[in-house]
DNA sequence: CATCAAGGCCAT
DNA sequence: ATGGCCTTGATG
């Protein structure tokens, strides 16, 4: 996807590896120049390394005299530092890797990541060589005798950790083909194009709550929401996170904390897991809200770092876009859905994405104390609730209304994930080729949720049907949000070339 | 002891 | 301000 992400040298005559050690020669994802090693999170050239360091260390603030979308390449990289730095962030260079204390030498927490990335690339290269050998009629096993995991098609789905554009993967590639239906791209290649910050690393922000807490009656969502703070320019605050790093004084603003304490005590105790069906247990176990928060954090930080003022609507679209990517990523790894053909997957997603976004926001707000507002690094306030409303402030009442009803029903994480599945696996979507499978999945989840509500919440009369009755309400919020976004888009005031807009368009066809 | 990513230096 | 080359120092 990204512009400079090429592997060369592996296809030369004898399968030799010309210069670089691993036979991997890549171009700097920022400017396309020759890569000199891993710098601040990924392989970049020497000059972009230096540029990134200077910018972050000296807290430089650039402005773009054009449209903030200057093309960056080797010859023009000096012309617009603003866009160059933007691109650095977009491709995933890590602010945290610049040390506030300027300590030299040593290693940081990205070391292991670099190592894994090397291994991944090496394997990719081997696969290519193997494939080339096979094509030429050579005997593959001569070169790589039966090593498990080195078959040509093994490990195609290795999760890529670095070198991935964050959100604007679709917007930032300068010379990519016009618009290869973003959904299909996302579905087909999420592994190589999409990567929310790796989940395995220590998350930049810790979410205390574990997704399982019943939303005890306590005033979780409704009342005074805390604000999370992305803002800080003080060294004192830097020291907060990152204790594993060699140099704990990362230069990036680190403080970004939700006061995330899932209402563990209180009225609603977690239903004992023995009663819960394995299906639901697996669903819940697969939820990764840390990653969700992490990517939100990274995006907000990257988008506002080093900028005086950002277009908040545009920022919101970017966040929604990112959320959408995570939806797709979640879906394509989910039971039932993953067995479908891409065409069917696309149809289901096109039909349910906005509902799922709204539902997800309710979940984040109710179960993870996502605040309604946050202060960005540059001091601007971002209305996070607006994300759940898909940009329509007037939907707030309706949204809160639904939230209250959900709270009354003691809507918990299991309910949430089942409903999400039911939204996704909608057997009524037209044109599904494998409707049977979709219906099967839908009914299994439905059944599981029914049993769950009956066994775990006997005190709530008819919880299952009451939950189901809320679906049209969620849908109406989603529909109005979609319309709003679509109008904004037609005005030209929404970012183009995003998965979000692709989704909006797909439905109108 | 070799590696290699981070910071520093300095001619341009 | 840029970018090529140098020094540093934790890691394995």
Structural features, described:
The protein is mainly alpha-helical and 509 residues long. The protein has 17 helices and five strands. A three-stranded mixed β-sheet has the order 3-4-5. Strand 4 and strand 5 form a beta hairpin. Helix 10 crosses helix 11, helix 11 packs antiparallel against helix 14 and helix 11 packs across helix 16. The longest helix has 29 residues. It is globular. The chain starts with 34 loop residues before the first strand and ends with a helix. The relative contact order is 0.10. The N terminus is likely disordered. The structure holds a DNA duplex (12 and 12 nucleotides). Its main location: nucleus. Keywords: Activator, DNA-binding, Metal-binding, Nucleus, Receptor, Transcription, Transcription regulation, Zinc, Zinc-finger. It is found in: Nucleus.
The dominant shape is globular
Overall pLDDT, averaged?
74
Query: Radius of gyration over alpha carbons?
Result: 24 Å
Largest sheet: 3 strands, mixed
Along the chain, the helix and strand elements come as EEHHHHHHEHHHHHEEHHHHHH
Report strand order across the widest sheet. Answer: 3-4-5
> How far apart lie the N and C ends?
26 Å
Number of strands: 5
- Uncertain spans, ≥5 residues at pLDDT below 50? 1-24, 139-160, 163-180, 189-249, 253-269
InterPro entries: NHR-like_dom_sf, NR5-like, Nucl_hrmn_rcpt_lig-bd, Nuclear_hrmn_rcpt, Znf_hrmn_rcpt, Znf_NHR/GATA
Organism: Phyllotreta striolata
Family: Belongs to the nuclear hormone receptor family. NR5 subfamily.
Protein name: Nuclear hormone receptor FTZ-F1
């Amino acid at each position: 996807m990204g512009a400079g992400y090429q592997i060369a040298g592996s296809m030369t005559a004898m399968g030799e590896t010309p210069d670089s050690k691993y036979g991997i020669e890549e171009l700097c994802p920022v400017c396309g120049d020759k890569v000199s090693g891993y710098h601040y999170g990924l392989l970049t050239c020497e000059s972009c390394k230096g540029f990134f360091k200077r910018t972050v260390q000296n807290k430089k603030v650039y402005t773009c005299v054009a449209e903030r979308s200057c093309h960056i390449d080797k010859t023009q990289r000096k012309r617009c530092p603003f866009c160059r730095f933007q691109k650095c962030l977009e491709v995933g260079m890590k602010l945290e890797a610049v040390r506030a204390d300027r300590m030299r030498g040593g290693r940081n927490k990205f070391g292991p990541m670099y190592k894994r990335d090397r291994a991944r690339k090496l394997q990719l290269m081997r696969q290519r060589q193997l494939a080339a050998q096979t094509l030429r009629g050579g005997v593959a096993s001569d070169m790589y005798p039966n090593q498990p995991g080195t078959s040509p098609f093994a490990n195609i789905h290795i999760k890529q950790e670095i070198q991935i554009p964050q959100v604007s993967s679709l917007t930032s590639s300068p010379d990519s083909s016009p618009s290869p239906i973003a959904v299909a791209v996302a579905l087909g290649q999420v592994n190589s194009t999409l990567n929310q910050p790796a989940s395995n690393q220590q998350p930049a922000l810790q979410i205390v709550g574990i997704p399982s807490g019943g939303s005890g009656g306590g005033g979780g969502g409704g009342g005074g929401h805390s604000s999370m703070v992305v803002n800080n320019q003080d060294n004192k605050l830097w020291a907060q996170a990152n204790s594993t790093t060699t140099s704990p004084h990362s230069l990036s603003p680190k403080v970004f904390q939700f006061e995330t304490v899932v209402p563990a005590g209180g009225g609603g105790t977690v239903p004992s897991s023995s009663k819960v069906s394995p299906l639901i247990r697996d669903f819940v176990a697969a939820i990764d809200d840390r990653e969700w928060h992490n990517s939100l954090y990274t995006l907000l930080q990257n988008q506002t770092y080093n900028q005086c003022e950002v277009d908040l609507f545009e920022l919101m679209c970017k966040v929604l876009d990112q959320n959408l990517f995570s939806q797709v990523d979640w879906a394509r790894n989910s039971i039932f859905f993953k067995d479908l053909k891409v065409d069917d997957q696309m149809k289901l997603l096109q039909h349910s994405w906005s509902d799922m976004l709204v539902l997800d926001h309710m979940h984040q707000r109710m179960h993870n104390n996502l605040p309604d507002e946050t202060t960005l690094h540059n001091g601007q306030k971002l209305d996070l609730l607006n994300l759940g409303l898909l940009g329509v402030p007037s939907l707030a009442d309706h949204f809160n209304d639904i939230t209250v009803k959900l709270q009354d029903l003691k809507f918990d994480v299991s309910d949430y994930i089942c409903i999400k599945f039911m939204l996704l696996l909608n057997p009524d979507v037209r044109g599904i080729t494998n409707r049977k499978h979709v219906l099967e999945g839908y009914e299994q989840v439905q059944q599981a949720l029914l049993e769950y509500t009956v066994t775990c919440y006997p005190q709530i009369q008819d919880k299952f049907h009451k939950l189901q009755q809320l679906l049209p309400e969620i849908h109406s919020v989603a529909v109005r949000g979609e319309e709003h976004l679509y109008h904004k888009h037609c005005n030209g005031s929404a970012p183009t070339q995003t998965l979000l807009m692709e989704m909006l368009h797909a439905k109108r066809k």
